[in-house]
Request: fold
Amino acid sequence: DAGVIQSPRHEVTEMGQEVTLRCKPISGHDYLFWYRQTMMRGLELLIYFNNNVPIDDSGMPEDRFSAKMPNASFSTLKIQPSEPRDSAVYFCATHSGKMYSPLHFGNGTRLTVT
Amino acid sequence: AQSVTQPDIHITVSEGASLELRCNYSYGATPYLFWYVQSPGQGLQLLLKYFSGDTLVQGIKGFEAEFKRSQSSFNLRKPSVHWSDAAEYFCAVGPPNQAGTALIFGKGTTLSVSS
Reply:
């Protein structure tokens, strides 16, 4: 099992540009979560999906952020337009949905917006 | 409101010394409780979890944690710290009996190990 795969590992972009972060979940995991990590706010849940359907997007900071899960093996988090305050590490995590199973994290994407 | 508090932002311990990282939570019912560890440039890895039963749970890498309902705490301990334990540690809570729902994380405690 390759685990949760995120790409790219690092992204540097200029303010105003569109940024797309990608996540491939563990096969068979029905839940997918996007978290953002910053020094000031720690780990914040942005949105999560169950069976490709968004369940809770109340953590998405504003309309500049959008997330999709077109199929069970792929999700994207898009920021358009990006701003310097969006600089953070973005994690994708997945869960099998089985009781007592843990949350599995990808290695994250470090986003820097200049 | 549901929340997790890790009072210590940064802790330094000597190699071979014991370790205790504190975690307090605010939750409507007894939640599921977790400790995760994050090494630099990596994602979070599960150390241990508590769902019910014995309040002292064992995890990987020699870590253990004790759930104390009266104190709303779930402190992480290790009897003898190794240099490789230097990392950031996160306590998290989740709703009981609901698999797959979102966890709430504390802000983390950074552990440094001195020789």
Remarks:
- The interface with chain A takes residues 34, 36, 41-46, 49, 51, 90, 97, 99-108 of chain B (CB under 8 Å).
- The first strand of chain B starts at residue 3 and ends at 5.
